[in-house]
Amino acid sequence: MATRIEADLVIPGSGDPIPNGCVVLEGEVITYAGxxxxxxxxxPSETTVSVPAVIPGLWDCHAHFTGARSLSMEEQIYTSNxxxxxxxxxxxxxxxxxxxxxxxxxGGHGIYLSRAVNEGSIPGPHIYAAGGLLSxxxxxADAHAFPIEFVQYWANLREVPAPCDGVPSCLLAVRKVLRxxxxxxxxxxxxxxxxxxxxxQHQQFSDEELxxxxxxxxxxxxxxxxxxxxxxxxxxxxxxxxRTIEHGTWLDEEAADLxxxxxxxxxxxxSVDGLLEGGAQSDMPQxxxxxxxxxLEQVQVSMRLAVRRKVPIAMGTDIFLSGGTAPVHWxxxxxxxxxxxxxxxMAPLExxxxxxxxxxxxxxxxxxxxxxLRTGFLADVIAVAEDPLKRIRxxxxxxxxxQVWKDGRLVxxxxxPGSARR
Length: 422
Prior knowledge:
Elements: E1 2-10, E2 18-26, E3 29-35, E4 47-56, E5 58-68, H1 73-78, H2 81-97, E6 100-105, H3 110-118, E7 126-129, E8 133-134, H4 148-157, H5 167-180, E9 185-188, H6 207-219, E10 224-228, H7 231-240, E11 244-247, H8 253-262, E12 265-267, H9 272-277, H10 286-308, E13 319-321, H11 335-344, H12 348-354, E14 381-384, E15 401-406, E16 409-413
Parallel strand pairs: 1-4, 5-6, 5-13, 6-7, 8-9, 9-10, 10-11, 11-12
Antiparallel strand pairs: 1-2, 2-3, 4-14, 14-15, 15-16
């Protein structure tokens, strides 16, 4: 049965908005999107709804289903996989109910959640998962407070890569995440903030190791997402051929121009700043706070530079805490778009494009035909209670995401009784 969505405004993801538009869904795909005057006649069995605005389902291109309730690495290690997965099930549902129909999950339990979502056992977005983070010994994804032997044991227990050093070890790590079914490979090319001993501005993997990781992933038609704060890590990752730069805190003009030249995408993750600035700071060790302060001083300058240099940008939040009590949590994903407008200087239409039409490109050859309201594209669509071009913050308010279709099926419906539907 077909669904006909008539809207005061259709924002197709790519291209100009269409006033007085119409989107028709049939099965799992879109069969029409354009002016209502050109839409096919409604059939007798077709459901018709009228809404203020309709856009493609949102993508969050950098997030983590960890099931963690605090920043404590000890708590994350001590929490059983079963408990973390159960928590993550609710997080996946919260994302979908907020209009996020696709998530590129860069380290966490997404590799398992995706199977349950795909088979229809639980509600959730499409999940394209990395399966684990590749890190050097002593790098950002190493648990520095624990003996390395324990870290290796814990990684094996959870079927994620242990810290890897040297080309053979890096190749094995890539093959391990591919064995899990990873859609993308995640590598920590620089130090990070929420880790004890590494400096965010330092390059971690060598150029040779990074090239080996990218080439091995490419043999399986996967691309590499590179966690990078410092310029050295950014440049090394780009030289190696990564597809995306995550965070990009110390991006400069040379790095921005190289991204444009290579067609690499930036995923800024501004939402995590709310975690660093907010109440979660009471849980943070002093070394984390010091690194967070330096990152927060720099990030807005670099992100505005990226916009000026026309770097392709995809929306990502870096949400990683479970439940609804953290300053940044699942279901608030769309709030990233307002930050991109306010802090980066993006136009609302460009911010929406970053979360829709551009977002699938972060998966390279694994990209689905998604993120646009176009004939033949996947019928992931959301209806919004007001025009997001006039108030972009509405996309971060789940109660104003009035309907969500995933694969052409209505999975969220907040329309009030008696609203326009026939």
